[in-house]
Amino acid sequence: MDLTATPGLDPARALDPARFAIAGRAPRAALRPASREELGEALRAAARDRLAVVPWGGGVGLAGADAPPRYDLAIDLTALDRIVTYDPDDFTLTAECGVTLAALADAVAARGQELPLECAHAGRATYGGVLAANAAGPRRLRFGSPRDRILGGHYALGDGTLAKSGGRVVKNVAGYALHRLLCGSRGALGVLVEAAIKLAPAPHARLALAWALDAPALADGARFASLARLEPAWWVVLGREAARGIAGLPDAPFVVVTGLEDDPGWVAAQRARFTDAFGAPHASCEGAEALALSRAIADRDAPATGGQLAFASAHVTPAALAPLVAEPELATARFTVTGGRLVVAVTGERAGVFAERAHEAGFRWVECTGLAGFNPPLAPQSAVTALRARIRSQLDPRGAFAFGERWSG
């Protein structure tokens, strides 16, 4: 059917479906609603005709996604881009979910505050997309995940119902926190329309340091042991291919980069400790340049068009990579020490081999993209799978959202 003929929807909202292809599969139709009411109308019409829907923001997280089994309608949310309220004194902000992360960051930076969200391509990624993916960058230890920062939200369910939970203030604890449940669901349970978030103060000093390491130096656990409790704002290990093209970083088999963000005295003390362990840094930058470097590293977490595996680990030092230094995939590795996350690019033939080696080294597989049919060498979490299926049956009983089957499977 022609969704733009539905009462309450302007035919001018229709877009070219080819722009919203996922893994080569385009939907039958695409819409860009101008209000939450139009979004509700579109979802009601889609539910009536049992169409499979995918919400879209900037498309950053969908670039490497596998095509869903059914895909009929793309809903572009970028017209919903208002900052609804901003209270600098209370460190809270409420905005519609189609606004970009960069726009929000600029708005709060003018008041000496910081948006506690990070993801790849912040100039294109939307607020709602980052929340839906529960995405976090190198500074996850400092900020927590989006699920930790969200205070409340308005959202649309698969039948077009508009609902809300939480509030706009930190102390609001009324009702069920369904807004947090939507963080990480990747558009499989509902569409976030508006969300309130807790902000962070900007640091008084910001410094980034980088060292070039070879494989033996990376495997030297003693070198890192004394640094585990320093808790820098961010700390990453990049393989040569992952670091290539990032301005200011040395060309080496591995590059260790740390970001120090705090009061000047503590930043200076942390720098001295890292210098004792690694020697003088091969590269360093401060202030806005250090922030730009952290964003350039976060950009490398954008889903690859080829195969990619992500792992989680409780290990807190780069020496956790020691058992894997001989693996060719480690040249593409991004290991966020402060977030315990390892991401590597991998071919289909090598996916199983690397996943098995990483599992033996203490890394737990959490996600793959571009590897249809890949089965990780881990026991299935049947209890979690059953719980997710129950949640989906309550929030989206008709299966309106195209990625819902994958989320609950």
List the topology elements.
Layout: E1 14-15, E2 29-31, H1 36-48, E3 53-56, E4 73-76, E5 83-87, E6 92-96, H2 101-109, E7 113-114, H3 127-133, H4 140-143, H5 146-149, E8 150-156, E9 162-166, H6 178-182, E10 191-198, E11 200-201, E12 205-213, H7 215-218, H8 221-225, E13 234-239, H9 240-243, E14 254-262, H10 264-278, E15 283-286, H11 287-299, E16 308-312, E17 334-336, E18 341-345, H12 348-360, E19 364-369, H13 382-395, H14 404-408
Parallel strand pairs: 2-4, 3-4
Antiparallel strand pairs: 1-2, 5-6, 6-10, 7-11, 8-9, 8-10, 12-14, 12-15, 13-14, 13-17, 16-18, 16-19, 17-18
Question: Would you write up a description of this structure?
Answer:
There is one protein chain. With about 400 residues, this protein is an alpha+beta fold. Helices cover about 30% and strands about 25% of the residues. The strands form four sheets. An eight-stranded antiparallel sheet has the order 15-12-14-13-17-18-16-19, with helices on both faces. A five-stranded antiparallel sheet has the order 5-6-10-8-9. A hairpin with a 5-residue loop joins strand 8 (about 150-155) and strand 9 (about 160-165).
